[in-house]
């Protein structure tokens, strides 16, 4: 009897040990839990860096957005071997869930927004040793969130608008571009007030007051708020900003990796080859060694060299060659923007120009390839570190001219801004143009605007600006579309009332009761 | 367990101990023979009822056995004969004659922490006939179960070393539908189990049967018991088999044919003004059959050697297994060594058992999905091309503008192998008191370790690939799993009352860890890479993480039978899991079942019915098989950004993945009614079941909106509710004609229907590419654009109008697909998608036929699914030459000369006709397949004994050689790509066709 009790007690004692129910409390200590984060100034700083990190993604600024923004605009075309990719850049949207372009760009922009919202929702609850630093960080994050939203609304227009840290069950409301712009204007005005006018070299890449003004001006322009835009641009051109910004002497300095963060640059995305890792190592959000470079070269390099996902339209070459410089040469902007068959002839002083170490190939025929941002003399590498100049002073000067013209016609200030851009590349003042009717341009509002459309195309070609411009000038009348067709046959597929905005990824529309697909998709 | 409970247990024992004390030992002997012929039966089992151990009769049919008392009852059983129970009533010698017939009724079924006679089952349990496993060449126990039990859907994958998937009674859950496997009382381990070691398999299908496993059993339980030694001299068995395997091939175009079609596609592109297309391709000159390059006859060799035997006080079973699978795909392979020792022993009131198994495997991993890549790459591309980095051929904008991947290059340039070690051991000790009370302690330990070695040589396999640095990758994974189970079982027959009660506690703790390293630039000697990490000279990156989980459970079950006629069972289980938040981690799950043996009633007197039983069960099970920490959100420390001049890299941190912190147990309630009948002198068996189950608070990683900014996996959520209902019928016939010919046939049929009752996050619909789930509808219904035909002329385009007269597809050209304007708004838009197909079979069927004459036997197994729609992903991928893919021989595209109405024109650079989300790719997926035809011959015993062997058997098995289907894809039986798209055959791996030769000796 006693023996049995001993046996059984022995056997059951093991159970008594394992029945401690608190053993089920296991914390995930693989990294910090969210409950222990967002407590210190350093946490916030890390949170802010994570927003910048979203620049280095395939759907943002390492590759796909270039193809899409340039391909839809009349300055570029995609003849990519990947048919779906190239159709997307030609207004042929078959699969609205097309992963490489439509959902990737969408998703990665919203990830950036989510990261920004986390910072903004926590930053006010944390003690900062230096209040100015807090204000600076708020300014940076508001700038970045506005930056991402600006591109979202440029591409899709009617987007879900999220301004608070997301939760899984959210079904955000859809906003019109006007509603989105109103919020961006508020946020960017706040950023303007919080950001410093200049930064030390070690902080290049973080926006300044000037960057915020520039982006704000762009938003106002898209919103057709000319007066408000002028106020921002005035600060940059005639106000304090003129102390910090100017056109570079050499137009080519805007696209070289040796002349980054120069005076002409208001905001540029910092690319680097610091993480030199395999080509497979991209877009993995859990990889601390993921690439910090850009694939812009690979994306646009000529067929047979890179992917050739996007290239230039031939009309650019013809337009550049319409005017001669004051010393009787061709416009250097042509030389720096594209590669084409006659470059050697047109720029005899640069006869040995190589295309990633290659000479022009006869079988490329009349095709025109994008040269901006290339490191042309070297063989192509999968990644490069050339910073993308997202907001450039020449753009600002031309916007200023445009806004002034919208308000009061071609004022002397407007003409001066236009001529500063022209004269940097040794073109005569517009009044003395050998090709254009300068007299009419400087006296007639409509003519001035029409000329700005050309000048912007040539100054800012293939820099992801053109699609934004076309939308600002309107894509809802047949005459405009016909003119675009004459330059870019992709517009044969353009349907008014439909194609000026992309289809929202179908899975988003299907599963968000507050979201409607864009018209006619 | 609290101290008070312990006292209670002790008090219980004291009572039991005082009521029964005497334990005496008596030896009985006797002889077992066939009642008809009087011939002695060698190898019959003689056991004491409710006792431990047993004896086997010798060649003369004689046995000798120790029993607990002179009044004990003996149970005598022999394969092919009806078992008998004989009360000794004081006798020391008994001669027993057995009647030939089916033993199914006395078959003992393992039901989790205990056994029950099959005839006394109150729940839904299928017993897999493990005899049939012998002739199956699947090296994976799950794959081998295909078609052998009703309501069990097994889908094998065809890739060496990859396990088949198994679903019991349809989908009950949205995350994990795999049943729980219990191998010798240990959780899991089926993945590396050697089918030759398996003694029995039972499938517990309804809640009441599975309830004892509680939270882990919502998808059913498969209980596998491995072999043990039998009392008697040592038996040595050798089995060897060699299987030749082939994979089915697409009927793809050769270069000659393909160029002809491709030129047409370019001509069409030029004619219709596709941008950038000005001339036909300047084709490569090669004619590569990529399938020929990658596919070969696989040879699988499998050898088993086992030693078994035992005495009254213990028995043993030791086996060795060696398997070499030179896969049927270039670059794939699987290699296994297995070693098992099962022993058990008994002394007095104490008994023990132990299972130890060690498995060492090595798998060569395949890169890419050949079934997608075969289609994606042009046949004109050469395998080798010295002009490319690495020396392999691939697309070129001028010669083959195609992003297809060179499969040979992928295997050569990125070899990856994956050695694994698995050690599983369990040991239990049991104290048995008064033949009624058994206290058992079971300890099980599983240790897994695996390594993945990757060598990335420099070189490319596709157009536009970056010139990557060579690298070495090393990833290590290890885990420990410890299970401690304590049970107390009371089992006693008192008069006409049969009581079997069990209570216990189980505790399971798991720890796993991964570490990885990648180093760039390994050193090279000539063209040979050195694969030691020390020899890699470039940048090193590394990482790692761990996982931890625990489950603590209390369980109890009572089975009670009165007079063998009225049977009831009640089960309760309380589970706590670390995977759910503290406030909701405990769940209680109960179930109840009852059965009535009508045939036991005095009024029941139907001579041809041997046994008839009605049963019903109802119960709830839980599921928490989600990630380790799905309710805890963490910070991602990976983001980096660059600032400044000079560039500095700065650390970022953020939350990437959203979580739901309010997770609760998923619950599944099942009601089951069934009838079991044995008829016509035990020759016909029949079982029918009807069940209805409802799952609520389904745990699922339901995709959330991209606008949430979530990344790194969708958060787990308790999303909605799902109902499954269906029936299963299993029927079998077994008979002998004369003494030499026996035959059997069995058929199982099942039908499952599911319906979404509720969806998560308050949604009423959930969409994925190809499918839509809506409340009241089945999961995964195809939601696509409907193809009406092909426009035959410009006039035809003009005539395709909506009711207001708007031309619906004004830009279409003759030869383009005409889509249905479902919402009648005059344009084709996303609003025109409609429900066009159901991926769920109307019914599934398994069939097996067997016959034996003298030494010959034949077994035929077939199974089929009927009435389901399948989306043919291979056909959609081949599309219409838009990306210079390959295509199938015999396609007839639309041309003005040949105006077909089912296939559009082919054109390069234009995908409008080949979109995946259209009804064009749906097909009837019904099939019936003779999965197995096995022939065997056993050499007559007198001959084999002549050369000193007890038994010699040889056989040949044909697998998957005959399939009846109209599906045009490679294989109508495929692994789906997710529960929301269950009917999508996304270029899945086809099942291999094979011929196996086997030989086995016993001596």
TrEMBL record, chain A:
Location of the region described as Disordered in the Swiss-Prot/TrEMBL record: 502-521
Biased composition (Polar residues): 508-521
Major location (coarse): membrane
Domain RagB/SusD stretches: 284-521
Intracellular or extracellular location(s): Cell outer membrane
InterPro entries in the cross-refs: SusD-like_N (IPR033985), SusD_RagB_dom (IPR012944), TPR-like_helical_dom_sf (IPR011990)
The name this protein goes by in its record: Membrane protein
Automatic annotation (TrEMBL), chain B:
SUPFAM superfamilies to which the protein is assigned, alphabetical: Carboxypeptidase regulatory domain-like (SSF49464), Porins (SSF56935)
Keywords: Cell outer membrane, Membrane, Signal, Transmembrane, Transmembrane beta strand, Transport
Sequence similarity: Belongs to the TonB-dependent receptor family.
Cleavable signal peptide: 1-24
Membrane-topology descriptor: Multi-pass membrane protein
Domain of life: Bacteria
Protein location: Cell outer membrane
UniProt xrefs under InterPro entries: Beta-barrel_TonB_sf (IPR036942), CarboxyPept-like_regulatory (IPR008969), Plug_dom (IPR012910), Plug_dom_sf (IPR037066), TonB-dep_OMP_SusC/RagA (IPR023996), TonB-dep_OMP_SusC/RagA_CS (IPR023997), TonB-dep_rcpt-like (IPR039426)
Residues of the TonB-dependent receptor plug domain: 117-221
Segments forming a coiled coil: none
Protein name per UniProt: SusC/RagA family TonB-linked outer membrane protein
């Amino acid at each position: 009897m006693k023996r049995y009790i001993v046996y059984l007690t022995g056997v059951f004692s093991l159970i008594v040990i394992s029945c401690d129910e608190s053993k089920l409390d296991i914390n995930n200590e693989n990294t910090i839990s969210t409950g222990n984060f967002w407590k210190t100034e350093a946490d916030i700083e890390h949170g802010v860096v994570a927003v910048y990190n979203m620049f280095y993604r395939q759907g943002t600024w390492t590759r796909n957005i270039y193809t899409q923004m340039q391909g839809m605009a009349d300055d570029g075309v995609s003849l990519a071997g990947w048919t779906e990719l190239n159709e997307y850049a030609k207004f042929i949207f078959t699969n609205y869930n097309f992963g490489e372009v439509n959902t990737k760009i969408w998703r990665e922009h919203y990830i950036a927004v989510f990261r920004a919202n986390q910072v903004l929702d926590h930053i006010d609850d944390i003690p900062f040793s230096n209040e100015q630093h807090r204000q600076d960080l708020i300014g940076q994050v508001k700038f970045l969130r506005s930056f991402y939203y600006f591109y979202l609304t440029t591409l899709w227009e009617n987007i879900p608008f999220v301004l608070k840290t997301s939760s899984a069950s959210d079904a955000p409301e859809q906003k019109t571009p006007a509603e989105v712009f109103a919020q961006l204007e508020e946020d960017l005005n706040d950023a303007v007030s919080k950001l410093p006018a200049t930064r030390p070299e070690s902080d290049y890449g973080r926006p300044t007051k000037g960057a915020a003004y520039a982006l704000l001006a762009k938003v106002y322009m898209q919103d057709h708020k000319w007066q408000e835009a002028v106020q921002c641009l005035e600060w940059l051109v005639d106000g304090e900003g003129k102390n910090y910004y100017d056109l570079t002497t050499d137009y080519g300095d805007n696209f070289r990796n040796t002349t980054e963060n120069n005076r002409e640059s208001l905001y540029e995305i910092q690319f680097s080859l610091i993480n030199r890792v395999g080509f497979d190592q991209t877009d993995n959000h859990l990889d601390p060694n993921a690439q910090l470079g850009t694939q812009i070269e690979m994306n646009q390099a000529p067929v047979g060299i890179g992917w050739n996902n996007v290239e230039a339209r031939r009309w650019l070459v013809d337009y550049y060659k319409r005017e001669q410089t004051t010393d009787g040469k061709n416009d250097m902007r042509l030389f720096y923007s594209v590669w084409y068959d006659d470059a050697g002839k047109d720029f005899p002083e640069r006869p040995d120009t190589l295309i990633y170490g290659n000479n022009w190939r006869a079988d490329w025929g009349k095709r025109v390839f994008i040269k901006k941002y290339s490191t042309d003399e070297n063989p192509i590498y999968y990644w490069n570190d050339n910073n993308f100049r997202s907001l450039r002073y020449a753009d600002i000067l031309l916007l200023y001219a445009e806004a002034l013209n919208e308000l009061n016609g071609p004022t002397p200030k407007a003409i001066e801004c236009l001529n500063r851009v022209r004269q940097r590349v040794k073109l005569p003042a517009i009044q003395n143009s050998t090709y254009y009717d300068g007299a009419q341009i400087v006296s007639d509002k409509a003519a001035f605007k029409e000329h700005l459309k050309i000048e912007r195309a040539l100054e800012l070609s293939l820099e992801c600006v053109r699609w934004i411009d076309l939308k600002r000038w309107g894509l809802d009348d047949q005459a405009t579309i016909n003119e675009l067709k004459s330059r870019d046959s992709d517009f044969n597929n353009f349907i008014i009332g439909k194609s000026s905005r992309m289809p929202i990824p179908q899975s988003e529309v299907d599963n968000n009761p507050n979201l409607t697909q864009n018209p006619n998709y | 367990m609290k101290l008070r409970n312990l006292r209670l247990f002790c008090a219980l024992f004291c009572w039991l101990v005082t009521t029964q004390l005497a334990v005496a030992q008596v030896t009985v002997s006797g002889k077992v023979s066939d009642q008809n012929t009087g011939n002695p039966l060698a190898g019959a089992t003689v056991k004491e009822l409710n006792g431990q151990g047993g004896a086997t009769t010798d060649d003369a049919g004689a046995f000798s056995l120790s029993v607990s008392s002179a009044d004990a009852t003996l149970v005598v059983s022999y394969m092919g004969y009806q078992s008998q129970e004989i009360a000794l009533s004081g006798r020391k010698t008994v001669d027993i004659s057995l009647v030939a017939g089916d033993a199914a009724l006395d078959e003992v079924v393992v039901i989790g922490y205990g056994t029950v006679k099959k005839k006394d089952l109150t729940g839904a349990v299928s017993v897999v006939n493990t005899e049939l496993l012998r002739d199956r060449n699947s090296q994976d126990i799950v794959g081998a179960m295909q078609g052998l039990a009703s309501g069990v859907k097994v889908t094998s994958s065809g890739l060496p070393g990859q396990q088949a998937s198994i679903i019991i009674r349809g989908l009950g859950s949205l995350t994990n539908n795999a049943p729980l496997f219990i191998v010798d009382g240990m959780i899991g381990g089926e993945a590396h189990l050697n089918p030759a070691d398996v003694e029995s398999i039972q499938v517990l299908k309804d809640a009441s049967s599975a309830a004892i496993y509680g939270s882990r059993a919502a998808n059913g339980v498969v209980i596998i018991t491995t072999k043990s030694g039998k009392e008697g001299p040592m038996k040595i068995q050798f089995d060897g088999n060699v299987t030749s395997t082939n994979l089915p091939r697409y009927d793809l175009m050769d270069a000659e044919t393909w160029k002809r079609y491709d030129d047409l596609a370019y001509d069409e592109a030029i004619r219709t003004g596709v941008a950038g297309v000005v001339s036909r391709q300047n084709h490569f000159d090669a004619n590569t059959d990529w399938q020929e390059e990658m596919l070969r006859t696989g040879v699988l060799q499998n050898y088993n050697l086992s030693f078994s035997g035992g005495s009254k006080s213990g028995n043993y079973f030791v086996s060795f297994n060696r398997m070499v699978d030179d896969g049927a795909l270039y670059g794939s392979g699987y290699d296994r060594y297995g070693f098992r020792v099962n022993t058990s022993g008994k002394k007095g009131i104490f008994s023990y058992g132990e299972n130890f198994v060690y498995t060492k495997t090595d798998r060569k991993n395949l890169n890419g999905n050949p079934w997608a890549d075969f289609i994606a790459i042009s046949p004109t591309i050469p395998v080798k091309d010295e002009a490319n980095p690495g020396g392999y051929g691939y697309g070129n904008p001028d010669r083959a503008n195609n992003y297809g991947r060179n499969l040979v290059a992928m295997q050569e340039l990125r070899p990856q192998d994956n050695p694994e070690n698995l050690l599983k051991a369990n040991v239990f000790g049991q104290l048995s008191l008064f033949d009624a009370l058994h206290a058992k302690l079971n300890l099980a330990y599983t240790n897994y370790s695996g390594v993945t070695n990757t060598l990335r040589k420099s070189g490319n396999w596709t157009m536009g690939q970056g010139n990557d640095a060579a690298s070495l990758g090393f990833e290590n994974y290890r885990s420990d799993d410890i299970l401690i189970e304590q049970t107390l079982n009371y089992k006693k027959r008192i008069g006409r009352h049969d009581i079997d009660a069990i209570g216990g506690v189980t505790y399971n703790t798991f720890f796993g860890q991964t570490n990885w390293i990648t180093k760039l630039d390994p050193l090279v000697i000539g063209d040979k890479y050195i694969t030691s990490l020390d020899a890699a000279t470039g940048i090193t990156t590394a990482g790692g993480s761990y996982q931890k989980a625990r489950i603590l459970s209390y369980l109890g079950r009572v089975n009670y039978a009165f007079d063998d006629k009225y049977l009831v069972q009640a089960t309760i289980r309380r589970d706590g899991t670390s995977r759910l938040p503290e406030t909701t981690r405990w769940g209680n799950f109960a179930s109840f079942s009852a059965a009535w043996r009508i045939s036991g009633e005095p009024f029941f007197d139907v001579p041809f019915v041997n046994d008839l039983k009605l049963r019903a069960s109802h119960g709830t099970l839980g599921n928490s098989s989600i990630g380790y920490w799905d309710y805890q959100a963490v910070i991602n420390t990976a983001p980096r950004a660059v600032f400044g001049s000079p560039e500095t890299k700065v650390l970022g941190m953020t939350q990437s993945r959203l979580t739901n912190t309010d997770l609760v147990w998923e619950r599944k309630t099942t009601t089951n009614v069934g009838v079991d009948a044995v008829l016509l002198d035990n020759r016909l068996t029949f079982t029918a079941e009807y069940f209805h189950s409802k799952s609520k608070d389904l745990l699922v990683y339901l995709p959330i909106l991209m606008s949430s900014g979530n990344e790194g996996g969708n958060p787990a959520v308790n999303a909605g509710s799902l109902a499954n209902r269906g029936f299963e019928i299993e029927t079998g016939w077994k008979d002998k004609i004369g003494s030499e010919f026996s035959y059997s046939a069995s058929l199982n049929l099942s039908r499952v229907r599911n319906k979404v009752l509720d969806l998560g996050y308050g949604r009423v619909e959930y969409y994925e590419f190809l499918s839509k789930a809506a409340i009241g509808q089945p999961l995964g219904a195809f939601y696509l654009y409907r193809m009406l035909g092909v426009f035959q002329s410009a006039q035809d385009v003009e005539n395709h109008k909506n009711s207001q007269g708007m031309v619906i597809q004004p830009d279409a050209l003759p030869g383009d697909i005409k889509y249905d304007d479902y919402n009648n708004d005059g344009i084709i838009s996303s609003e025109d998608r409609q429900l066009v197909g159901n991926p769920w079979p109307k019914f599934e069927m398994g069939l097996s036929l067997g016959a034996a004459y003298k030494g010959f036997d034949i077994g035929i197994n077939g199974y089929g699914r009927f009435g389901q729609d399948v989306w043919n992903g291979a056909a959609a991928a081949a599309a219409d030459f838009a990306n210079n893919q390959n295509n199938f021989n015999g396609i007839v595209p639309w041309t003005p000369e040949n105006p077909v109405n089912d296939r559009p024109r082919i054109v390069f650079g234009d995908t409008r006709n080949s979109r995946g989300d259209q009804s064009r790719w749906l097909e009837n997926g019904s099939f019936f397949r003779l999965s197995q035809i096995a022939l065997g011959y056993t050499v007559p015993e007198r001959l084999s004994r002549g050369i000193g062997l007890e038994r010699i058997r040889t056989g040949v098995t044909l697998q998957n050689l005959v399939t009846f289907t109209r599906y045009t894809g490679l294989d109508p039986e495929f692994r789906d790509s997710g529960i929301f798209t269950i009917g999508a055959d996304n270029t899945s791996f086809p099942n291999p066709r094979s011929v196996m030769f086997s030989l086995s000796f016993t001596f």
